[in-house]
From TrEMBL:
Residues 81-116, 117-152 form the EF-hand domain. This is EF-hand domain-containing protein. Keywords: Calcium, Repeat. Signal peptide: none annotated. The keyword Calcium applies.
């Protein structure tokens, strides 16, 4: 994982590389190339429109300045890094590679990593994540709980 400063430098380089004509903004094919260089995947027109909503110039196609590009891409990369961490944690807790976290797998993972944690509190967390009460936490349920925890943590640290 890159440091925040390295990430900004990389995003600026992607912008400069894509702005071959030195217009000071990216539009159309140049924008698609800049985003592809930053993310490693070629975005669709719909994705570009969603990502850079608010960067439109009336009567023209989407035009994105370097500051707008860096801000949007940084947010996107931060979210991608967070979701990658959530995926890894889910895989680690899915001890039997079943595609879900069973109550037993959750208990075993907690015993290994949180030996002194309050068991009742941990089971409350599991029950909260297991929205349909089937004894399993799907990836979607797990992701929802992790993102909620990140939001709560961020609001508590303001």
């Amino acid at each position: 994982m890159q440091s925040a400063e390295d990430q900004l430098v990389c995003l600026r380089r992607c912008f400069v590389w894509a702005d071959r004509d030195e217009k000071g903004f990216l539009a159309g094919h140049d924008l698609k190339c800049g985003v592809a260089a930053a993310l490693g995947v070629r975005p669709s027109k719909l994705l570009l429109a969603q990502m850079f909503r608010g960067c439109e110039v009336p009567g023209h196609e989407l035009r994105v300045t370097m500051d707008e590009f860096v801000a949007v891409m940084k947010t996107r990369l931060d979210k991608t890094d967070l979701l990658e961490g959530v995926r890894r944690l889910f895989k680690a807790m899915d001890l039997r590679a079943e595609g879900f976290i069973s109550r037993r797998s959750f208990q075993q993972a907690c015993e290994m990593t949180l030996p002194f944690a309050n068991r009742e509190t941990l089971m409350r967390v599991f029950r909260e994540a297991d929205r349909d009460d089937d004894g399993r936490v799907t990836y979607q349920d797990f992701e929802r709980m992790c993102l909620l925890a990140v939001q709560i943590d961020a609001s508590n640290n303001k």
